[in-house]
Design a protein that fits this description.
Elements: H1 5-8, H2 12-23, H3 31-36, H4 45-57, E1 61-65, E2 73-77, H5 81-97, H6 101-111, H7 116-129
Antiparallel strand pairs: 1-2
């Protein structure tokens, strides 16, 4: 499948579902399992099922029936949270900062109004990564 930009990113609602799948203790989850993990108000079963169909089409999750038949589908992530985070951050860096990590970091230092202590901690962290 040739993915366009919309297919590579998750909507807010899709992200909620992916977080449930990524945080889940089970390798696979049915729609009911996902619904149970929502806080109130819980979305309707059919709403979650629709999102699972979309996530399957976008190739963020796979769906399969368990051996022994039945109609119930079980879903599992096809991409890890870390891989998705890396992709989104890379796209944001390229789109908003011309691919410059320095510009991205500078933006957050200014916009987040980091304290001197936080800046020192970040500097130390960067030194350790070198």
């Amino acid at each position: 499948m040739n993915r366009n930009k919309d297919q590579r990113t998750l909507t807010k609602a899709e992200m909620e579902i992916m977080n449930i799948l990524w945080d889940g203790s089970q390798k696979e989850m049915a729609v009911r399992d996902i619904q149970e993990r929502y806080t109130n108000p819980k979305p309707a079963y059919t709403t979650i099922a629709t999102f699972m169909k979309i996530l399957t089409q976008k190739e963020f999750v796979s769906a399969r029936k368990h051996d022994g038949g039945g109609k119930m589908l079980f879903f599992r992530p096809l991409i890890s949270r870390e891989v998705y985070r890396r992709r989104v951050m890379q796209e944001g860096k390229n789109s908003f900062f011309g691919g410059s990590l320095k510009s991205l970091v500078s933006y957050f230092v200014k916009e987040e109004k980091l304290s001197e202590k936080e800046i020192d901690e970040l500097m130390e962290m960067m030194k350790q990564e070198l």
